[in-house]
Amino acid sequence: MRQDGTLKFFNHDRGFGFITPKDGGKDVFVHITAFERSSIAVPAEGASLSFVAEDDSRGRGKQATQIELD
């Protein structure tokens, strides 16, 4: 299910960050590869975007995929 959110934080040196969902749920992990697969550059912190939260393959919670800028 697609969700709207805001890029809360992104560490370019380490290649990951977190998205805060607009529905007020827990922050969702986002890896640089999610932006690369979506063919978009990492936006500035605070940017509005939409994403799909999928279970991490390692069992670490949710991870953002299919990112689109709003």
In the sheet with the most strands, the strands line up as 3-2-1-4-5
What number is the mean pLDDT?
Answer: 94
How many individual β-strands? 5
Radius of gyration: 11 Å
End-to-end distance: 16 Å
| Strand percentage | over 45%
In short:
Helix content is 9%, strand content 51%. With 70 residues, the chain is mainly beta. A hairpin with a 4-residue loop joins β1 (2-11) and β2 (16-21).
Describe the protein.
This protein has one helix at 32-37, and strands at residues 2-11, 16-21, 28-31, 48-55, 62-69. The two termini are 16 Å apart. By secondary structure, the chain is mainly beta. A hairpin with a 4-residue loop joins strand 1 and strand 2. Helices cover 9% and strands 51% of the residues.
Topology, element by element:
Blueprint: E1 2-11, E2 16-21, E3 28-31, H1 32-37, E4 48-55, E5 62-69
Antiparallel strand pairs: 1-2, 1-4, 2-3, 4-5
Name some characteristics of this structure.
single chain, 70 residues, mainly beta, five-stranded antiparallel sheet, 5 strands, 9% helix
